[in-house]
Amino acid sequence: MHTIKLAVFDMAGTVVNEDNVVYKTLQRAINERGFQVTLDFVLEHGAGKEKHQAIKDIIKADIGSVDTDMAASIFEDFKVLLGKAYEQLEVDSYDGVEDLLLALKENGIKVALNTGYDTQTAQLLLDKMDWVEGKQYDVLVTADDVVLGRPNPDMIVKAMMKLNVQQEELVLKAGDSIIDIEEGKNANCGITIGVTTGAHTRQQLLSANPTHVLDSLTELKQLLLPS
Q1: Hey, what CATH topology would domain 6-18+92-224 get?
Q2: Which of 13, 26, 95, 133 is at 20 to 30 A from 33, Cα to Cα?
Q3: Do 195 and 204 contact (CB within 8 A), yes or no?
């Protein structure tokens, strides 16, 4: 059994089931400018990243270069489209995940949520699920809280500072994309977890060499908690 003090979870695709609406909206915003990128291509090159950076990386991967003004303009379109999509969207957590977070907290493990979204979007998701700081999680860290997004470790470092956890080896990072695992490794987390509920497949996640790849986050109970 692993010993940790802090578990850092990505949001969409990891603890929040929003049916890939963000990446579908990203795809739509890009393709409305004349591109023809597929959802798989968007996930491959954009998953887990701060969304303005994701747009730049997707376009660069598609045509070899990117016009920064156009990328900024697409990002503005994306935010409007996403706001409309979220207003109508049913958002829930994956089966058993809320119980898992509560069980971790009951066993003295702190829980942080981190995301490539801005704070407003992240809070909208949490409000739709009726999740509140201090109950399901201890702290939320978003792209707005750091200068450098994933795969840089800054969001995890920020969560550790806010929750007074000093030892990286006692931190777990879990996410549904390769960049989540890279972020965890760059923060020297003792455990990195890939979960197949979101952006990337088991094979893609394994390519980043996480400690474990799980089909459900609830499998963490066996790895972390006394039976």
Answers
A1: Rossmann fold (3.40.50)
A2: 13
A3: no
